[in-house]
Amino acid sequence: MGVSLVELAASFDKVIGVDNSQLVIDDCRTNFEYAKVLNFELLTGDVSSKFLLKSIKADVILYDIPYWSNHSGKVNPAEQNPDLGELITNIREFITEDIVVYAPTYITYETIRDELGECEYLEVWLNGKHDRNFIFLGSLIQSIGKTKIELNE
Predict the structure, then answer these.
(1) In the chain, what's the furthest Cα-to-Cα distance?
(2) In the chain, N or C: fewer CB atoms in 10 Å?
(3) pLDDT for the residue 76
(4) 60 near 96, Cβ under 8 Å?
(5) pLDDT tens for each residue of the chain, 153 residues long
(6) Domain range holding 119?
(7) Whole-model pTM?
(8) Is 51 part of any domain?
(9) Domain-located, residue 94
(10) Where are the alpha helices (DSSP H) in 35-98?
């Protein structure tokens, strides 16, 4: 929990984590303390809340879509995740245009482009298997369109 933020903390003055589960926030706090990261803030709340978004000041947003799969039938990603287009619109309005989205493999470049506009879409393959996608928006775009990288462990 908070692994990306622990790694990013060395490059930023402050990192802010948001989750709607206090258990996740508590685990994240433990991981920060274990890693001796001091420049963080953790918020319990719903990322789709405009009230919450208005309270955050940030230069870059990293959004990791919470439910990538149905976790053996326990969740429905389409119903339990915030609407991506609406969430990104609100982040752009209240915080920043510079957004990175960690996205599951079933979200295609065409879907993202149609919903969010021009972007950089990085398709990541690990050991020959499509593992995830990274979507870059705002000034984080280095190359508009879809790129595929292949990594091996």
Answers:
(1) 42
(2) C
(3) 53
(4) yes
(5) 788 899 999 999 999 999 888 998 999 999 999 999 999 999 999 998 999 999 999 999 999 876 555 455 554 556 677 788 999 999 999 999 999 999 888 889 999 999 999 999 999 999 999 999 999 999 999 999 999 999 998
(6) 58-151
(7) 0.88
(8) no
(9) yes
(10) 50-54, 77-80, 84-94
Q: Phi and psi for 48 in degrees, rounded to 5?
A: -85, 0
**Do 99 and 35 have their domain in common?**
no
The per-residue pLDDT for 91 is 96
| Closest among 9, 12, 11 to 32, alpha carbons compared | 9
Which residue is it, tokens 């508009």? 144
Q: Which residue has the tokens 């245009």?
A: 97
**Same-domain pairing of 83 and 134:** yes
In this structure, the answer to whether residues 143 and 114 fall within a common structural domain is yes
Site of tokens 């420049």: 39
Sole residue written with tokens 């298997």: 129
The residue with tokens 């990594």 is: 151
Same domain membership, residue 72 and residue 30: no
Same domain, residue pair 92 and 119: yes
Residue 105 belongs to some domain of the structure: yes
Residue 107 shares a structural domain with residue 129: yes
